[in-house]
Design goal:
Layout lengths: L1 E3 L2 H16 L7 E3 L5 H9 L6 E2 L9 H19 L4 E4 L3 H12 L4 E4 L14 H11 L2 E4 L2 H9 L7 E3 L3 H10 L8 H9 L3 E5 L8 H16 L4 E5 L4 H8 L8 E4 L4 H10 L2 E4 L2 H10 L3 E3 L7 H6 L2 E3 L4 H12 L2 H8 L11 H13 L8
Helix pairs in contact: 1-2, 1-7, 1-16, 3-4, 4-5, 9-10, 9-14
Bound molecules: uridine-diphosphate-N-acetylglucosamine and uridine-5'-diphosphate.
Uridine-diphosphate-N-acetylglucosamine binds next to helix 1, helix 2 and helix 3.
Length: 374
């Protein structure tokens, strides 16, 4: 049983769900919690996944405790009815940890996809760092994306035999999508792609940036747009009203800022590959950017994905408004060289085969012939 609820989990679970579907040795069940609604459905539609169960938990203004308790409550009867041999959860969201705990309470083995990421700071990213540490405590099988994440788990006492380094399935999803050169549904973006003018892509949504830091990010983007009139800035805004209200006020009426809704994954990854730079606080974007040769300025104080920093694709710029403007200006002064410099860097997060490795690990533990009927 694979359980997921938000956009990034859906993108990262999709390749594994497809691999399980194609397996002769495993039967798959897909449960979505609906922690996200439109942004989740968008991904399931793209990958042609029809969930077997949908908890439909999302509400506007949802608190972490509400999401957690609704997932725990909603999933328990499904676990009782389906009696899966293992439950796969992905990453560090509230859905992920609540689903892991629901399975643990039923003594069903938890398989943690994207295990072992650590920032070392419980406050950032919040609550994700705490979520992933909790899930690591109760998981039976840890599918780590990199050697660094494997080492983090070993340091915390996880047995070597329970860890498999698979790479990150987000790169599988990216490869399945980015080559297709899907058309943008907004003709304005299609025109922009044809012009080949410098384009800055911006995404932001982190909970620790809600409120004044997010408003500061909005003002920083407005300052950059005014200072560089030949630059087009594309900002696919998250659905969260708290993010939109804080971020978008400063950007109204600026002609070289294009604000869109959340883009379908194929459109987003095409934009990512066209951008000269991405300014973001996203986890997944840090992992995808090396594969399309686009540098990232990361609006965070730290990252649980240090591989991006060590390869030179990702640079931390924090969330201070002035600092963000200065770092982007410095990059733009020299952008063709700086973009070209990351073009040949191999992606440290994955090679597109993570879901095959994850499937092999699942089959070796939970294949149908090993199933003992209840
Ligand atoms: C969640 C995850 C975060 C992940 C992010 C990806 C937690 C604690 N946070 O944060 O780890 O990086 O997703 O985007 O699990 N909304 C909609 N429609 C949607 C999606 C969201 O309207 O399709 C709005 C709703 O008002 C919702 C709000 O956004 O209440 C916040 O969603 P939530 O999942 O609570 O937080 P995120 O910041 O999206
Ligand atoms: N993404 C997308 N459409 C968008 C913005 C992002 O499909 O408009 C994808 C992006 O390619 C990445 C994932 O969403 O795979 C990242 O999601 P998000 O930043 O919301 O969450 P995080 O990765 O920070 O948990």
């Amino acid at each position: 049983m694979t359980v997921y609820g938000t956009r990034p989990e859906a993108i990262k679970c999709a390749p594994l769900v497809k691999a399980i579907e194609a397996s002769d040795d495993l039967d798959g069940v897909v449960v979505v919690t609906g922690q996200h609604r439109e942004m989740l459905d968008q991904v399931n539609a793209l990958f042609e996944i029809t969930p077997d169960h949908d908890l439909d938990v999302m509400s506007h203004g949802q608190t972490l405790a509400q999401i957690f308790s609704r997932v725990l409550d909603g999933l328990d009867p499904i676990l009782a009815a389906e009696r899966p041999d293992a439950v796969v959860v992905q990453g560090d969201t509230t859905t992920s940890t609540a689903a892991a705990l629901a399975a643990f309470y039923r003594q069903i083995p938890v398989v943690h996809l994207e295990a072992g990421l650590r920032s070392g700071d419980l406050a950032s990213p919040f609550p994700e760092e705490g979520n992933r540490k909790i899930t690591s405590q109760i998981a039976a099988l840890h599918l780590a994306p990199t050697e660094t994440s494997r080492d983090n788990l070993l340091r915390e006492g996880v047995a070597d035999g329970d860890i498999v380094v698979t790479g990150n399935t987000v790169i599988d999803a990216l490869y399945a999508t980015v080559g297709k050169q899907v058309e943008f549904s907004d003709p304005g973006l299609e025109e922009l792609a044809a012009q080949q003018a410098p384009m800055l892509l911006v995404t932001t949504h982190r909970r620790e940036n809600w409120g004044e830091p997010m408003a500061g990010i909005g003002r920083a983007v407005a300052t950059i747009a005014r200072r560089f009139p030949d630059l087009t800035i594309v900002l696919p805004a998250h659905h969260n009203p708290l993010v939109r209200d804080a971020l978008l006020t400063a950007l109204e009426g600026i002609s070289n800022v294009v604000v869109t809704g959340p883009l379908p994954y194929g459109e987003f990854t095409r934009l990512l590959s066209l951008a000269c730079l991405v300014l973001s606080d996203s986890g997944g974007v840090q992992e995808e950017a090396p594969s399309v040769g686009t540098p990232v300025l990361l609006m965070r104080e730290n990252t649980e994905r240090p591989e991006g920093l060590t390869t030179g694709v990702v640079h931390l710029v924090g969330t201070d408004e002035t600092q963000i403007v200065e770092e982007v200006a410095r990059f733009l002064a020299d952008w063709p060289r700086r973009r070209a410099a990351v073009g040949d860097i191999a992606n440290p997060f994955g090679d597109g085969l993570a879901s095959s490795r994850a499937l092999a690990a699942l089959e070796s533990r939970y294949a149908r012939q090993q199933h003992v009927a209840p």
